[in-house]
Automatic annotation (TrEMBL):
SUPFAM superfamilies: Glyoxalase/Bleomycin resistance protein/Dihydroxybiphenyl dioxygenase. This is Glyoxalase.
Amino acid sequence: MSTTTVPLLPCVAPESTVEFYETLGFDTSDRQTKPYLYLAFSFEGVELHFKEAAPDLDVSHELTGGCLFFVDAVAGYHKAFSERLRRRYGRIPATGLPRIERLRPAQS
């Protein structure tokens, strides 16, 4: 089974973000500031991607970001994630944050 995760995170300071991740040993695989901001870093199979933050983002609140999770067989992951969420919250959160949507038959 092949799995790839690509967090897509907000970036308010491109230069210091590049400096920080390169200092940690990440390779910069994409560095673009025009016409839009997009940064991508990799380290031993870990991928971190950054985009321009919303203009009104207050980074002290840490309320935005995302993570894309690509898998070959989604049903197994959905089942495992749902079970963990149910153990943690006593239910599967389907609204609000955090949440997971119901997996429909034949969905991929």
